[in-house]
Amino acid sequence: MKRKFLIVAGLFISGLNPLWATSSQKITSNIKIKGDSSKSLTLKQQGVLYELNSPEDLSLPSRSREVLVKSYKNIYLDQLESILINNNRTIKIYLEKIDQAKSILKSSLSAWYPTLNLTANGIPQYFESNNYNESNLIQDTSSKQWSTSISAQIQWDLINPARVPEIASARDSFEKAKYSYSIVLRDLKLEAKKRYFNLQKANEEIKVATKSIESSTLGLKDAEIRFESGIGTKLEVLEAKTQLSRDQQLLNIKLGDQKIGQRSLAEILNFPEDLTPLIGSKTKVLGIWNLSLEESIIAAYNAREELDSILLDISINNSNANAALAAGQPRISIINTSTSSFSKGELNKISPNTNNESSSFSNTIGLNATWFIFDGGNSRSLYKYNLSKAKEAKLNFALTRAQIRKEVEEVFFKLESAKLNISASYAEVLSARESLRLAKLRYNSGITTQREVVNNQRDLTDSEVRYIISVTSYNTLLADLSRQTGLDNIQPCDIKANQMNQIDIDSTSNLYESNLIPLCQL
């Protein structure tokens, strides 16, 4: 009998493994993050990303050479997403949260399976005793026995009202964790692009400031030569020095902005402390948004995981409410208890026979019922609380939907304004260049003063900076609209400034190749 019980118990335990494996496989297979299907990552693929990165080092640098920038790396716009997924710590944190939610879901699914408890008393144990009696009528006895006992209890909930809502809540929490990952990934991609564009802007502004310094230096030399020759005045020299100082200040400010932008981009990409990113591309218009406002709003409603996450909150709270109410409902379980014991020896015998063997096997099966008739109103209060949370989530859904429309409209309108600003600022640059050229010709001919040249030089610098800012703002808004709608619906750059934005200049000037001005590049 003992052997039969051990064989049955072993087969039952081994039989649980394929059942559990099948359930786990259903959970872990084909898990994808909502978004572009071509860029979706399964959890298996995300695990590969962990293998590409070394474990996080918890130590802190203690020497200056450990944080000294020693190397540089060129970064391009199309590389940001892959670098973020591989390196960014915030993304890895949300991947861990997905694994945590998956583990909770597996834990809740275990409620469908029976539980097996094994209890062993003495495996084995030896008992020896001697009993002495003063009466001659009763003889002295002794005990010498080896014994072992094992008991197995199998319990399976036939009726468990809390089981289904708890599993539903865990499954919705798992889906919500995936949505949270997708939301964070999109936000980080947008932030990385913003920092990339700002670093681009700083680089281009440094070039503008450098060109302005070169022009101001030549102007100062020319003014000094004219002053020494008796043609110019001391005022012209001072004006040229003032302009050179202003340009030098502009360069110093932009050099600081460049360093800040480099380290800011390195931080979000999680580069090593001794590595600084460099921007290898120039500031130019990425393209145009070819969807209408209405189409963009509809796309945002369909793509924003924030709305789906709130719907899951409603479902989670309703499931929690049902689980709380289930605490006051009856629970019925089937229990099977099997006990097997074996002993060798005898107890309380005059001369115990240590070779005497005995064994026993018993099996008990029955139903257990549990019903908390009165819990002080705890389950009913929790039920009402979770229903209220579900109603709150419904109100949040309406607020979030209105907020999404507001955000899309604001970005869309700002994008239209930024597109017009690019055309206007580009025309301003061309006008300022031509004005500076004419001012220099007038100055060299003795018609005008150095003041006019200085003013036109300052206007050209300001206009070029404004053009760079307008292009950067446009690209940032374009990336923001793409994030809001979940679409990468950007056509190649073909934005043009029409002839109405141009100024009247000599037809022989080579500043305009045609009546249309390309704005893809400064």
Please render the helix and strand layout as text.
Layout: H1 2-28, H2 43-51, E1 71-75, H3 80-87, H4 89-109, E2 115-131, E3 141-159, H5 163-228, H6 234-268, E4 275-279, E5 287-289, H7 293-303, H8 305-326, E6 331-349, E7 357-370, H9 378-444, H10 450-485, E8 490-492, E9 496-497, E10 517-518
Parallel strand pairs: 1-4
Antiparallel strand pairs: 2-3, 3-6, 5-8, 6-7, 9-10
Descriptive report:
There is one protein chain. The chain is an alpha+beta fold. It folds into 2 domains: 45-53 and 87-113 and 163-330 and 392-522, Up-down Bundle (Outer membrane efflux proteins (OEP)), CATH 1.20.1600; 116-159 and 332-370. It is built from 10 helices and 10 strands. The strands form 4 sheets. The protein has a 4-stranded antiparallel beta sheet, with helices on one face. It has a two-stranded parallel ribbon with strand order 1-4. Strands 5-8 form a two-stranded antiparallel sheet. Helix 5 packs antiparallel against helix 10. The longest helix is centred in the C-terminal third of the chain and has 67 residues, at 378-444. The radius of gyration is 40 Å and the shape is elongated. The N and C termini lie far apart (91 Å). Residues 1-55 and 495-522 have low confidence and may be disordered.
